[in-house]
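EI: anyone free to look at a 453-residue chain?
SC: sure, send it
EI:
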Amino acid sequence: MESYRLETGPDGVPRLKVPYRGPHLLSHPMYNKSTAFTREERRAFALEGLLPDAVSTLEQQMRRAYGNIARKPEPLERYIGLAALQDRNETLFYRLLVDHLEEFLPIVYTPTVGRACQEFSHIFRRARGLWITPDDRGRIDRVLGDAPFEEVRLIVVTDNESILGLGDQGAGGMAIPVGKLALYTAAAGIHPARTLPISLDVGTDNASLLADDLYLGWRHPRLRGEPYDTLVEEFVEGVKRRFPKAVLQWEDFRKGTAFALLERYRKALPSFNDDVQGTAAVAVAGVMAASRLTGIPWPRQRVVIFGAGAAGVGIARLMRDALKRTGVEGDDLRRAIALIDTHGLVTEEGAAGDYRRGLGWPVSLATSAGLGPGNPRDLRAVVRALKPTVLIGVSGAPGAFTEEVVREMARGVERPLIFRCRTRPASPRPRPRTSSPGRRGARSWPPAAPSRP
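SC: here you go
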């Protein structure tokens, strides 16, 4: 691994120490400035004759790159073009992404990244991040040592089993950590040399991938049980040793696995699950903010959550904690939050042995509300019975929030809060091409001046 370090020169100006020269420098995306290298830099770094004569500004490079990407008619082709730019010049890639964030966010991440996961083995150009497979057992620490930079502060890892709404995508799931980290850099300013995408490629149960002769992943059925657990344990221990200051973000694991891993390792190292904790934080913050407009105090909120996966359960847990802090407890706390899955209202009996434990309604409570055994427990029935103040959708099932359900909400409360479901299509329609490469909300992302080797 190498370090990406700034050093202060004799003139007091911070400079980036560049360890490469010549063609090797031009092939390294983190250090490559391409046609922006000045004539002095071209002499210092043995680049003379390796670039066209003109010296471009970053602004000129950005306009050129934008034109090349914008003329591509298909979102997937734009994704490929942006990935290729990231692979050869990260400074230019992030400048382009920041200047056109609204336009390119749906390309770099959802929804287009879902299609990129599906087509991963067919559009593969250049490897990014680390893949860890069961064949690496016993030497995962060594594999982590092959990471391109050593001062990693943020790792996004997936086992590829629950990619967006697409399910098991095998090795193609790597597009998710890569895309998520690009967003962290563009939107939060985390330097890309401090980030590391990782795929725990433990096989796939996706038969179409296993039958594809171009498939790039570990070509075996998905690892499960004790072999899976011990592999993850070795991985976590390796991360703790190699990157002791890093946050580990668990991304797109199957819901049961996601909760188990978060509980097991949250005290072993800084852990975060965006699907569970990130979604919950945004949802609860939204309810808190909106309650100021509706005038309904927090202890009087009645919340129905449609969707009992990682996001729904994460929201329910955080919502429960927030209500507890306002003094709500006992049956009042249980009644305040209703979780609905594909079978209807989740009860203690149905959630006894899984990650939803503690969130199901007691059968006696459901019965007293007219939602007991033998009675309808679907979304409409629950809304009619509970008269909730808040309805949150975190299910991929389309068409759940019907006009009838919304009208039922309005009958029960004067100003209901409805956070609708959002499904993510696997094959997004092409976005209309912008005719002008003009900058909008531009921010600079200036690289430090390079120093001589």
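EI: Residues 423-453 have pLDDT under 50 and may be disordered.
SC: 👍
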